[in-house]
Design brief:
Two copies of one chain form a homodimer. By secondary structure, chain A is α+β, with helices and mostly antiparallel strands. Chain A has eleven helices and 16 strands. The longest helix of chain A is centred in the middle third of the chain and has 21 residues. At the A-B interface, helix 8, helix 9, strand 14 and helix 11 of A face helix 8, helix 9, strand 14 and helix 11 of B.
Chain lengths: 408, 408
């Protein structure tokens, strides 16, 4: 199966989707902070939400909408600058008012509008600004490439670059489009608690199958990346399918086109997830951790996440220090039952540790590998045949800079 | 019960214990790096070790000795600068050779000598230096105050200050002495995987009761602190009891003096654990997190550790930013089933969040509280009567500095 990237693609690369991104005054510097995605055709919708007990108001609202109206979503309003989390009943009313205002301006029903928010926790949404921003965003809706990119800009917080892409997949002469955007650079950790993302497609997926495809895609992408181990109150990924590609409804995973569409969705999610890590707060290096020889994929993933979460591993990579003992140490406290005498570790193609014993370290070669922007670590547990890959970034002075003064 | 601190106390404040600390060339700058603790009288010994699967050679060795010879320990050799972890069979042979050499010089049996190592992982011990250091350390053994302090200096790695103290407790006119030393500033996280520590007492504890007292003390101290969430390969705490205080052997927890001695041990462990956090790598602030209103102590502890482990909380405290939403967020992903509408949060005596709703933030008061060296966070889960306290430090530029280039 072939995935074709659409050069310069964004949400509006998918037929039938319009978008806009505008400033409404939530960000003090006047940057765009409100994005609108709109489909004139009702969409099948699926969503996954943060596992944090403190779910932000828009998470509670969207969860309710998706569970009752998964077949007729038409718009998503996303604001940055304010998370509307830990804001009590008033915050939930603000989210409902956001949806209602957008619905009125778009001429759709309130329950056809989803809402996402990201930014500072514990602060109420300034509703006057939000409503005025929605007015501008509705006026600015368009399906050109620039509008899709404008939306991906407007959802950024500490992100330094917008993250968006689009691809096509084909099945028996029919072409399906899939596009996504995501934001998130901190509070990024598995359990889908990672970020905000909207993925759209013109494939005629049913809500049930949209959910199946989304869950599989997220398990292999957003749930395999970690920046700082924090799991946010707001993280949400939405998949909207407007069916404009035509053809039979894709209602069962045995539908001949399902595999192609699902792979397209998985590809978009994986590229977005990697883009989040590349843009991790303060990140100077992108780190891929491949764990092989595990008894199960879950064990491989847990070992990988233990290494990806180690501050000592992350600071060593930042310092370009081949302190591989920290990698072995993080394998050892992963909670997975590992035989120390069976474990081997590589940095790139340089073997460092073979079945429990250190090899002489080629410092020059290790230094060259660690000087690259992308660092690859491979761990063989010597226990089975399963493997998993996780992605993380280094921990730098920049991370501390960004997070010591985020709110102020 | 009264705990009396011994001013300027150290291991040698306990009758019958001698100590020394010498340089043997493991640290490039010539600082002391080998400590010896010696008791002419055989000691009852108990120990707790790291939960990391990759246990360093001295951990494997000590575990074997303690399980077979818990009643006749007479010496502990500790080196800094090299962890002797992930060093295979050769590393274990080095540990045995270390014990054998010290035993020969002290005129005791090899199985009466315990060994601890701390420093870089994956590097073999330079045995010529170690043996020469042991010779010097044996020659330097003394029971004056300076010798106890010299030992506590010699076990430091990235520590900026030595950690040692001594106390006495009394029961029915008999005075018991308890003293401890510890090192550790990074790779510090609960599960006893925190550091190296040696605690000594002249109480006539049996090995079994020494273990009971040590486990209780560690659960309430070292297992409640976190610096960076990493769990090292080497962490060990030893308790040696030489019985020189006299009196009946303390063999059951119903012995009338047991409670006093156990409280003394717990106090020494708690003060050492707090000292580790105060000296956490790069720490500029000491943070106490009290979790109340939990259904169980374990749930309170888990919530506290989730907050203590949050990089976002720790960087906000470093930046003196009252970003309390990050505290609530970390409560929410602790894994403990919490009712968001029942949770309240205080910074010092300033209530920030009451039963799920933010209170207006007094920025000036919050800034004043965060400008202090010691920051107190209190969380009420509103679910029960249990509580627990954990301690951590902030995450600063200094942490990144120290760990980006530790090995080189």
């Amino acid at each position: 199966m072939t995935i074709h990237p659409i050069k310069g693609g964004s949400l509006t690369s998918v037929p039938g989707f319009q978008a806009s991104g505008v400033p409404c005054g939530l960000k003090p510097n006047g940057d765009p902070d409100l994005a609108l995605v709109y489909s004139p055709h009702p969409c099948a919708a699926a969503a996954l939400f943060t596992t944090n007990t403190f779910k932000a108001a828009p998470v509670l609202y969207d969860r309710e909408i998706i569970s009752t109206e998964p077949g007729s979503i038409r718009a998503v309003v996303t604001n940055s600058g304010c998370a509307n989390a830990c804001t009590g009943e008033g915050g939930l009313a603000d989210t409902r008012a956001t949806a209602a205002h957008a619905a009125e301006r778009l001429g759709v029903a309130p329950e056809q509008v989803l809402v996402m928010s990201t930014g500072v926790i514990g602060v109420r949404l300034p509703m006057t600004k939000i409503k005025s921003g929605i007015d501008d965003a509705v006026a600015g809706l368009a399906d050109d490439a620039a509008s899709g990119h404008a939306a991906s800009w407007a959802i950024m917080t500490t992100d330094t670059v917008p993250k968006t892409l689009a691809v096509t997949v084909e099945h028996e002469g029919r072409r399906y489009h899939i596009a996504g955007m995501a934001k998130g650079a901190g509070m990024i950790h598995p359990n889908m608690a990672t970020m905000l993302s909207t993925v759209v497609t013109d494939a005629p997926l049913s809500p049930e199958l949209a959910r199946t495809a989304l869950r599989a895609a997220v398990d292999a992408s957003f749930n395999r990346v970690s920046v700082d181990g924090d799991t946010s109150t707001n993280d949400t990924i939405l998949l909207l399918a407007n069916g404009q590609a035509g053809g039979d409804a894709i209602e069962g995973s045995d539908h001949p086109a399902y595999a192609a569409v699902a792979e397209g969705i998985a590809t978009v999610c994986l590229e977005l997830a990697k883009a989040l890590v590349r843009d991790g707060e303060g990140a100077t290096k992108f780190v891929e951790i491949v764990v092989q020889g595990a008894r199960s994929v879950d064990e491989a993933r847990r070992v990988g996440q233990s290494v990806a979460g180690s501050l000592l591993v992350k600071t060593a990579i930042y310092g370009q220090d081949a302190n591989w003992g920290r990698i072995v140490c993080a394998v050892g406290y992963s909670g997975v039952d590992v035989d120390p005498e069976a474990v081997s570790v590589w940095l790139g193609d340089l073997e460092l540790f073979r079945r429990g014993t250190p090899l002489g370290l080629d410092e020059e070669r290790a230094a060259a590998l660690l000087a690259e922007d992308e660092v690859s670590i491979r761990i063989d547990l010597g226990a089975g045949l399963a493997e998993a890959t996780v992605w993380t970034c280094d921990l730098s002075h920049g991370y501390v800079d960004i997070n010591a003064h985020y709110r102020t």
